[in-house]
TrEMBL record:
Residues in Heterokaryon incompatibility domain copies: 49-203
PANTHER family: ANKYRIN REPEAT DOMAIN-CONTAINING PROTEIN 39 HOMOLOG-RELATED, HETEROKARYON INCOMPATIBILITY DOMAIN-CONTAINING PROTEIN
Protein origin, superkingdom: Eukaryota
InterPro entries per record: HET, HetReg/Transcr_Mod
Native organism: Xylaria multiplex
Pfam families given in the database record: HET
Protein's recorded name: Heterokaryon incompatibility domain-containing protein
Length: 341
């Protein structure tokens, strides 16, 4: 097995520059992964690319991705999940231009991340398609995706009638008299890590076109959203199901407080990402000056300052409900942390 040097990231050439990987085609999913890395300026719209929305999972970088550049070959370390999704998404005939944060962001450069992370909404919004990777398939995936395909074709009827039709469809596809198999499969599906990620909200909502992949199965995101909406007629949906049903389009942008409340259960590793992961969807974003390089307490102060600009009465009215969603702590804890960095 050849020995390569670790890939060296060049600094981005401009403020609006992004890296893309050019993933080499393969005739078999087992063929070795290889790619090149290029830089493009978003303002020039030279390359049509796809963006990948996924959950990192275990951060064990146990795989190598071969990088070709100017006649030299090097590598970057990637996780098993990233390796799997790249194998699944690469084409058989042509190179595939992709944006994926694990490779296209220099994860060791905090300054670059501070510059790039606040514009992630644009990166996903300008992609020709967003590929949503949920992970490998399991024993229920075939029936689930058949249910998704059929549920979207149901005619619009009253809620009670829709609930009955959804229940009948679940029994028809999964078998069993009470639809319990379907319910268990749907709950397990909705508990896949992607649905609880905070960043997926803007990644999905800002996409021009999005496709959901689970192993070898795929479905357009709008079909999944419609299915989740119809499943809610059964009055037994979980938080992830509600997230699925509320992956709206940019035309329905909300205020930062509304977003914090609607998606307060969505998780992230960095406290500042409680804000940054939603900011691409904010209707009143012009009121805020967010410096992602600052400490998370400073970032929260910037948010509160912008909220106060809406007027003290509105702030007092909604603060007890929304502010606690920043970290999941009590209101008193939040006020102390924001005012005592």
């Amino acid at each position: 097995m050849p020995v390569f040097n670790k890939y060296h990231y060049e600094h981005l050439c401009a403020e609006d520059a992004v890296r893309l990987i050019v993933l080499d085609p393969a005739t078999s999913e087992e063929d070795p992964l290889s790619c090149s890395i290029i830089q493009c300026r978003r303002s020039e719209h030279i390359v049509d690319y796809s963006a990948i929305s996924y959950a990192w999972g275990d951060r064990v970088f146990s795989r190598n991705l071969e990088i070709r550049c100017d006649g030299d070959t090097s590598y970057v370390r990637i996780t098993h999940n990233v390796e799997t999704l790249l194998r699944r998404l690469r084409a058989f005939d042509l190179p595939h231009y992709l944006w994926i944060d694990a490779i296209c962001l220099n994860q060791a450069d905090e300054n670059e991340k501070a510059q790039q992370i606040p514009v992630m909404g644009r990166v996903f919004g300008e992609a020709k398609v967003v590929h949503i990777w949920l992970g490998p398939e399991d024993g229920t995936t075939a029936n689930l995706f058949a249910f998704f395909q059929e549920a979207r074709l149901l005619p619009e009827v009253e809620k009670s009638e829709m609930a009955q039709r959804v229940a009948n469809l679940m029994r028809e596809i999964f078998g069993g008299p009470d639809g319990q198999r379907a319910l268990v499969a749907l709950v397990n599906f909705s508990e896949r890590p992607w649905f609880s990620r905070r960043w997926i909200i803007q990644e999905a909502c800002l996409a021009r076109k999005a496709t959901v992949h689970c192993g070898t199965y795929s479905i357009p995101l709008p079909s999944l959203v419609l299915t989740a909406t119809r499943f809610q007629t059964l009055d037994m949906s979980s938080y992830p199901i509600k997230v699925m049903a509320n992956l709206y389009t940019p035309e329905t942008k909300l205020t930062i407080l509304e977003l914090l409340w609607n998606f307060h259960e969505a998780r992230c590793l960095e406290r500042k990402d409680r804000i940054a992961a939603l900011f691409g969807l904010v209707r009143d974003g012009h009121r805020f000056h967010l410096d992602y390089a600052s400490h998370w307490t400073e970032l929260y102060k910037q948010v509160v300052t912008g909220i106060l600009a809406l007027g003290p009465f509105l702030f007092q009215k909604i603060m007890p409900i929304h502010l606690g969603s920043l970290t999941g702590q009590t209101l008193d804890d939040e006020i102390y942390l924001i005012t005592h960095p």
